[in-house]
Design goal:
The protein is an all-alpha fold. The protein has 10 helices and no strands. Helix 3 packs antiparallel against helix 8. The chain is globular, with a radius of gyration of 21 Å. It starts with 8 loop residues before the first helix and ends with a helix.
Length: about 280
C-alpha cells in the first residue's frame, strides 16, 4: 500500500506565525498598548456618566432616530441590564463593538469602493472574502494571540477580521448598482471619476452601505462571546464564565444582555439606512 506523506501545512503556518511574531511583535505590542489605552478611556468616559443619564441619552437618540417604541424598548432594556448588575460589562462590550466596527468600516468601505471601480482589485479581494466568511470564527483567535497577547486588543483584531467582509461586499454592491443613466448623465456634464464617486455613486449607494455597517455591527456582537475566550471581557465574559462554572443563569443573563444591545444597535442602524433611502 502506497502512503502519501502529509502536506506540512500546520508546520508551515506555525513557521510563518513564529517568523512574524519574532520580527514584528514589537510593532504589534506597541499598537496593542495604544488601542488598549484608548479602549479603557472610552469605557471610563462611559462609566463617568450615571447609568440613569446614559439611559436617558440613549432613549432620546432612539426616539430621534426610530420614534417612541424604540425609545421605550431602549430605556427598558438598558434599565434591565442595569438591574442585572451588568452595566459595566455592557459598556465594555459597547466600546469593543464600537472600536472594532469603526476599524472594520474604515478599512472595508475604501476596499469596497476600489473593488467596484477596478476589476483587478475585485477579482483579488472577493475570493479572499469568500475564504474569510467560510472560515470558522474560532480560527481568527489563533493569529491574534502571538501578535497582541491575551486581552481586549486581540479580541478587537479578531473581531475586525471576522466582521469586515459585509462592509466590503455591500459597499461594492451599492456602487455597482448605481443606475447607468445617472453615470452617463454625470459623464455628459464632464464629471471626473472622483466627482462621480462623491456626488453620484456614494449618495445613492449609502443605504446599501449602511446595511453593510449594520451587518458588521451584528457580526462584531456575535464575536463577543467567542472573543471572551482570549480575555475580551464584557458581556461575553459573563457568558463564558457561566459556561465554565456550570452556572446557566449567569450565562443566560450575559447572553440576554448581548441580545438587548444587539436589538438596539440593529434597529437604530436599520432606521438610519432607511432614512438615507427615503
Amino acid at each position: 500500500m502506497i502512503t502519501i506523506p502529509k502536506f506540512p501545512l500546520d508546520k508551515g503556518v506555525e513557521a510563518v506565525i513564529d517568523f512574524l511574531s519574532d520580527n514584528f511583535a514589537f510593532i504589534t505590542k506597541a499598537v496593542a498598548k495604544v488601542v488598549e489605552s484608548g479602549l479603557e478611556s472610552i469605557v471610563d468616559g462611559l462609566m463617568w456618566l450615571h447609568p440613569a443619564v446614559f439611559i436617558l441619552i440613549a432613549a432620546l437618540i432612539a426616539w430621534r432616530i426610530a420614534k417612541w417604541r424604540m425609545a421605550l424598548f431602549t430605556a427598558l432594556g438598558f434599565a434591565f441590564i442595569w438591574n442585572l448588575q451588568l452595566w459595566e460589562p455592557m459598556l465594555e462590550t459597547l466600546a469593543l463593538v464600537a472600536v472594532a466596527t469603526s476599524i472594520a468600516v474604515a478599512i472595508g468601505v475604501p476596499l469596497g469602493i476600489f473593488s467596484a471601480m477596478y476589476q483587478g482589485i475585485y477579482r483579488t479581494v472577493f475570493p479572499i472574502l469568500d475564504f474569510m466568511q467560510t472560515m470558522p470564527a474560532f480560527v481568527y483567535l489563533i493569529p491574534a494571540i502571538p501578535f497582541f497577547g491575551l486581552g481586549t486588543v486581540s479580541a478587537i483584531f479578531s473581531t475586525v477580521i471576522f466582521a469586515m467582509p459585509p462592509a466590503i461586499r455591500l459597499t461594492c454592491l451599492g456602487i455597482k448598482q448605481v443606475p447607468a443613466p445617472l453615470i452617463e448623465a454625470s459623464d455628459s456634464f464632464g464629471a471626473n471619476r472622483f466627482q462621480k464617486l462623491v456626488k453620484v455613486q456614494l449618495p445613492i449607494a449609502t443605504p446599501t452601505m449602511m446595511a453593510g455597517v449594520n451587518q458588521t455591527i451584528m457580526l462584531s456582537l456575535s464575536m463577543v462571546v467567542i472573543a471572551a475566550m482570549i480575555g475580551a471581557g464584557g458581556l461575553g465574559s459573563e457568558v463564558w464564565t457561566g459556561i465554565q462554572r456550570l452556572k446557566p443563569g449567569m450565562a443566560f443573563e450575559g447572553g440576554l444582555g448581548v441580545v438587548i444591545l444587539a436589538i438596539v444597535l440593529d434597529r437604530l442602524t436599520q432606521k438610519l439606512g432607511a432614512k438615507d433611502k427615503s
